[in-house]
Amino acid sequence: MSTRPTATKFVEAEKWYFAVDCAKCGEAIAFAEAPSPQDDPTPKHATIRVRCPSCRKEHTYAAALISRRQGPEKE
Ligand SMILES: [Zn+2]
Questions:
Q1: What count of Cα atoms within 13 Å lies in the side-chain half-sphere of residue 44?
Q2: Predicted pLDDT of residue 5
Q3: Distance from the CA of 25 to the center of ligand 1, in angstroms?
Q4: Residue among 19, 25, 74 nearest 45 (CA)
């Protein structure tokens, strides 16, 4: 089971996001909203450059490192 993103302000319960794990500190970085697996089973990615909200390290991530994750479940 993958880590669920928590660091970015637009992460909302039960929504889907594209995220990477920070190359420096390992924190999950959610950088874009994503369609659900039902809406788009095989989303395409380009290489992205994103700054970690936790350690502030900017890094380039290949498409293969990007995963789709879901926000926390509603209480
Ligand atoms: Zn980091």
A1: 1
A2: 55
A3: 4
A4: 19
The DSSP secondary structure of 6-72, one letter per residue, reads -SSTT--TT-EEEEEE-TTT--EEEEEE---TTT-SS-----EEEE-TTT--EEEE-GGG-EEEEPP
Mean pLDDT of 36-45: 93
Tokens representing 2 are 């993958």
Please say whether the beta carbons of 58 and 50 come within 8 A. Answer: yes
- Residue 38 CA to ligand 1 center (angstroms) comes to 30
* 10 has pLDDT over 70: no
72 CA to middle of ligand 1, Å? Answer: 20
Residue 17 has pLDDT above 60, yes or no: yes
